[in-house]
Design brief:
Number of strands: 17
Helix content: 10-25%
Number of helices: 3
Strand content: over 45%
Largest sheet: 10 strands, antiparallel, barrel
Shape: elongated
Radius of gyration: 24 Å
Structural class: alpha+beta
Number of domains: 1
Order of helices and strands: HHEEEEEEHEEEEEEEEEEE
Distance between the termini: 24 Å
């Protein structure tokens, strides 16, 4: 079971760890030439789609029916979310006027790939410095290329697999728990996820609903992800304790309704969710500029926070054969989400 949990955790982490680590080694740190302020602004635009997708993804996949368990009944499910990234988020517009020192080499503005853009070099940037009527170029570098995922598989989506346990406690109330203990790889990454949700049958309090074939519930959940990604020392930016630290905290509140017809359950949900993300580049970084005699050291240069929220509408189907369930839901959200999986459900 321990090995299985690790496999799932590493799968969840894969997109974040491989992509961010690769970018840290392949151009991401070049942003520091533009000072921490400029690097933070660029990073916020470049990584925004993955922050949105992971935030919405970890708020998803909590339920596949509005019917609660009997007391001490339980379910165990394994599912996967795909948060679909719209085409509009494959690029952002870089404008010179929005940045302090970082400037496009040839234009005042240009479309620039986000992490979900094509696997092609971004535009050329430079750090100009005017002195005594002369413009010196302190640094010159390419913008970060996209991951090129769309070219590889035909669409952009962010995966977030989930393992979850739910148990009926009292008064037709279920407690749902997600938990992956700290998973780490020496000098590479640390990763952990946990979440808790509560679903309560409100139909029992509505006169006449106890005999109704329709189940109505309210559901609320909170989840948290923490990840530290360490990368090899970049000879162009020497320093100590260099890592990327990411955290996501999300919550959702929804009203659910479902109806079971033989082995088939049809369900729908309406609610609201929110996700807060922090993304920090920590450690010290010695940045060497042309024409300057000594490097400039930046400490913890990037610290950004994002906050995404939206209404959500969910529809789905579940098939139950004895204690085995197979289910799929689709959610219209800030990013649309597909969830599918299987599990066992008793009582």
């Amino acid at each position: 079971m321990r090995n299985s949990t690790k496999t799932i955790a590493i799968t969840i982490s894969l997109f974040i760890i491989i992509t961010l680590s690769a970018k840290a080694q392949d151009g991401f740190l070049d942003l520091l030439y533009g000072t921490p302020e400029d690097a933070t602004k660029y990073s916020n635009s470049y990584f925004a789609p993955v922050f949105k997708g992971l935030g919405y993804g970890f708020n998803n996949g909590w339920y596949n029916t509005a019917k609660t368990h009997e007391q001490w009944g339980f379910d165990i499910t394994i599912s996967a979310n795909l948060a679909f990234v719209p085409e509009a988020d494959e690029f952002f517009t870089f404008r010179n006027e929005d940045y302090k020192v970082m400037q496009l080499e040839n234009n005042p503005y240009a479309p620039t790939p986000t992490i979900f853009g094509p696997n092609e070099p971004g535009p050329m940037f430079q750090i100009p410095y005017d002195t005594l009527g002369t413009t010196l170029v302190l640094a010159e570098f390419e913008g970060i290329e996209g991951a090129g995922l769309k070219d590889e598989i035909g669409f952009n989506a962010i995966p977030s697999p989930i393992i979850q346990v739910g148990i009926g406690v009292f008064k037709n109330t279920d407690i749902k728990v997600r938990y992956i203990p700290d998973v780490s790889s020496t000098d590479k990454f640390d990763y952990s996820v946990w979440g808790i949700g509560i679903m309560h049958d409100i139909g029992q309090w509505i006169p006449g609903m106890k005999e109704s074939p329709i189940d109505i519930s309210i559901f609320g959940a909170y989840s948290s992800l923490k990840s530290d990604i360490y990368f090899d020392m970049d000879s162009n930016f020497p320093g100590v304790n260099q890592k990327i630290s990411t955290g996501i905290k999300g919550w959702t509140l929804e009203a659910l309704v479902s109806k079971k017809i033989s082995v088939l359950t049809i369900m729908a949900g309406l609610g609201y969710n929110s996700a807060k993300t922090n993304f920090d580049l920590l450690g010290t970084y010695d940045v060497t500029y042309n024409y300057l005699p000594v490097p400039i050291t930046y400490t913890d240069p990037i610290k950004l926070k994002t906050n995404e929220s939206s209404m959500r509408i969910t529809g789905g189907l579940r098939v139950q054969l004895a204690i085995v369930t197979i289910f799929s839901t689709y959610t219209f959200n800030g990013y649309n989400l597909l969830n599918a999986g299987f599990g066992v459900s008793i009582k």
